[in-house]
Design goal:
427 residues, alpha+beta, two-stranded antiparallel sheet, 59% helix, 11% strand
Length: 427
């Protein structure tokens, strides 16, 4: 079936023309960003309106101060304050920012800048009633904030962050491509229930899958405006839109070239992704899934499909090992539970959405509180630069060579086994 789909481009000339077009888009995008940067830098300590996304305390030289993560109309940045601030999370501030030492590339990827003259603005976050609805369904603040992370992409409480590192399940807490897939499936199921009778009666000549896909994409876009500050979801949404467009035009989205051009398109329109580790992980994850589909055919029977899905999950988990530990060197053998918890989350996530919709969101709180209270321990597992470069090189070679895929998987399995050895027997 895939072999019947047309190629994205027929000639090298077509590829070069589209690449030049994307380079032009990238230049225009960077030009607009630089214009914003120039306008701000030309002002003497510009006054900015921003929303507080995170607020926490740090100590230095026996002095405590607040760190604020702020979202403005030009991006996200950090600042500090030594004032005795109340809880400002999700409130809007007016403040003056000192940008003298901020370069354009720091401005592009997110930066720190000192500030002063913080003024609390009267208007509230439009999602406050929704947040209160979720929080009121839970007896503890810890559980309420946990579900705010799952549904509204709020910051994950420290207790849950520690657990996520130990169990290797950080990816299920950051609303991203995994959640987009689940939400898309829910959207197809619900919309299909109502749309199918209308389709059969009034316009059976239309392609129902593409009609539903278009409605689902619109729903995903609406959800982004509800989240407002989730870079991981924005990446997943942009990739979903590109994938839907390719499917709509009859292209095979599992082709490696499709993934490559998808990355180029996203970088052209969102150049800040160049600095995003999350985008790098997302791209590698999609690559490894595509490689698995390339080298292992989907079985026809139900049992085979279940085993295939489990093998796909395990393959992606281990293939991501060294590159993830290079940036986040927290290791525990408990991360093997990710192989079970990730598939279970596919059922747990829509169940909790349904329970919160009907006011029973706290149904599993006692079980989850017992779990988060379980003491865990992690060690530092830091791959060296050579291993990191080798895995990236093998990832590219695996596109063309079957054996490179197996070498890459074997290296990661051996390294994971080494981590288990260090965990139990290392000094």
């Amino acid at each position: 079936m895939h072999n019947l789909s047309p190629p994205l481009f027929f000639t090298l000339k077509e590829r070069l023309i589209f690449f030049v077009f994307l380079c032009l888009i990238l230049c225009l995008t960077l030009g607009f960003k630089f214009y914003q940067f120039h306008i701000l830098k030309s002002q003497n300590n510009p006054q900015i309106t921003a929303q507080v996304l995170l607020q926490y305390t740090k100590s230095k030289q026996n002095k405590t101060y607040f760190v604020l993560k702020l979202k403005s109309n030009f991006g996200t940045f950090y600042t500090t304050s030594r004032e005795d601030l109340r809880d400002l999370k999700y409130r809007f501030l007016s403040l003056r920012v000192i940008l003298d030492k901020v370069s354009f590339w720091e401005f592009l990827r997110g930066f720190y800048a000192p500030s002063f003259n913080l003024i609390l603005l009267p208007f509230e976050d439009f999602r406050k009633p929704l947040r209160e609805t979720i929080l009121n369904q839970h007896a503890t603040k810890l559980m309420g904030e946990y579900y705010l992370t799952l549904f509204l992409s709020d910051s994950l409480p420290q207790e849950w962050r520690t657990l996520a590192q130990s169990y290797g399940i950080s990816h299920i807490f950051a609303i991203s491509g995994f959640h987009t897939g689940i939400l898309s499936a829910i959207g197809f199921l619900i919309l299909g229930f109502f749309y199918k009778p209308l389709h059969q009666r009034f316009f059976p000549y239309r392609n129902i899958l593409f009609d539903l896909g278009f409605l689902v994409v619109l729903g995903l876009i609406a959800y982004y405006f509800l989240l407002t500050q989730s870079p991981s979801y924005l990446r997943a949404l942009a990739m979903s839109c590109v994938a839907f467009f390719l499917l709509w035009r009859g292209f095979n989205v599992l082709r490696m070239e499709s993934l490559l051009w998808c990355i180029f398109v996203l970088v052209a329109f969102f150049p800040q992704l160049i600095f995003s580790i999350g985008f790098y992980f997302s791209s590698l994850g999609v690559l490894y899934i595509s490689l698995f589909f390339k080298y292992f055919k989907i079985p026809q029977n139900t049992k085979g499909k279940i085993l295939y899905s489990l093998a796909l999950n395990a393959s992606t988990f281990f293939l991501m090992g060294i590159v993830v530990y290079y940036f986040f060197p927290y290791f525990s053998p408990l991360s093997l539970f990710s192989l079970l918890l990730t598939p279970l989350f596919i059922f747990y996530y829509p169940l909790e959405l349904l329970l919160h919709l009907f006011g029973f969101g706290g149904f599993l709180d006692s079980l989850l509180l017992a779990w988060v209270g379980f003491k865990t321990h992690t060690i530092t597992l830091q791959p060296n630069l050579i291993a990191f470069i080798l895995c990236n090189a093998l990832s590219l070679l695996a596109i063309f060579y079957y054996h490179a895929f197996w070498i890459l998987l074997t290296i990661n399995l051996v390294y994971y086994s080494y981590g288990i050895y260090l965990y139990f027997y290392g000094i």
